[in-house]
Amino acid sequence: MTDPARHTLLEDAQGIAYGAGMAAFGIAILTHLGLVTGQTAGLAVLISYATGWGFGPVFFAINLPFYWLGYRRIGPVFVLKTFLAVGLMSALAMIFPRWVDFAHLDPIVGAVLFGAISGSALLALFRHGASLGGVGIVALYLQDKTGFRAGWTQLLVDLAIFAVALTLRDLGTVAVSALGALVVNLVIAVNHRRDRYIAT
After folding, report:
1. Which of 52, 81, 119, 171 is 20 to 30 Å from 16 at the Cα level?
2. Assign residue 134 a region: left if phi > 0, alpha if psi is -120 to 50, beta otherwise?
3. Which residues make Cβ contacts (< 8 Å) with residue 112, sequence separation at least 6?
4. pLDDT at 193
5. Closest C-alpha among 146, 142, 140 to residue 123
6. What is the pLDDT of residues 131-183, one digit of tens each?
7. Euclidean distance between CA atoms 26 and 78, whole angstroms
8. In 122-139, which positions are buried (b, 16+ CB within 10 angstroms) versus exposed (e)?
9. pTM of the prediction?
């Protein structure tokens, strides 16, 4: 009989697939509207806008340096799951624009949808012992060690990224983008508690 306090391999696989898939869909909404976001994804979006490079490869590359911290501080299983989640999201982010097209999407509604979808995606990944790398690794490490909520750490990093975004995008676009990032972080801050989750 398996330990009921642990996720099965199949449960982890579907959780990571859901999280990566929904995160990629969120990026499809975001980039369709020309918005920005925070965390590592936000940096990748800004680089993508500035250079014309695809979001997927940029996001995958930016995450590479963070795996060592994840390995040292959280463990190899977490890093493996995160690597798989980042790789799957990066691949799906390149494919989604071929699958999904928006005839009309209000920017404010789109920002809220992006935030809700991305927040649920991150919660699924956190619950199954993964993240989307980058700032998420640092935020989870700080939460586990100090109790400081992962969502608040990510919010502080977002503020710095949005300051940079103001040099590349107009104020109105950044303001609407900030709404989406706020929704992401509120979803995580309110709902992510380690003691509510089944152990990974």
Report:
1. 52
2. left
3. 179, 180, 183
4. 63
5. 140
6. 888 887 787 778 878 888 877 887 788 788 998 899 889 999 999 999 998 89
7. 23
8. bbbbbbbbbbbbbbbbbb
9. 0.84
- CA 58 – CA 93 distance, rounded (Å): 11
- Whole-number percent of the chain with pLDDT over 90: 55
pLDDT of 2 > 90? The answer is: no
Q: Let me know: does 78 contact 2? Beta carbons within 8 Å.
A: no
Confirm if 137 and 82 have CB atoms less than 8 A apart: yes
- Residue 199, phi then psi, degrees to nearest 5: -60, 150
Bigger pLDDT: 134 vs 119 = 119
Q: How far is CA 150 from CA 81, 192, 195, in A?
A: 18, 8, 14
Give yes or no for a contact between 200 and 7, defined as CB atoms under 8 angstroms apart. yes
**Cβ(150)–Cβ(140) under 8 Å?**
yes
DSSP string of 134-200? THHHHHHHHHHHH---HHHHHHHHHHHHHHHHTTTS-HHHHHHHHHHHHHHHHHHHHH--GGGSPB-
CA-wise closest residue to 39 among 167, 127, 142, 165: 165
169, 30, 184, 44 alpha-carbon torsion, rounded to 10°: -70
Angle between helices 66-73 and 135-146 (to 10 degrees): 20
| Contact between 151 and 192 (Cβ < 8 Å) | yes
pLDDT tens, position by position, 34-49: 999 988 999 999 999 9
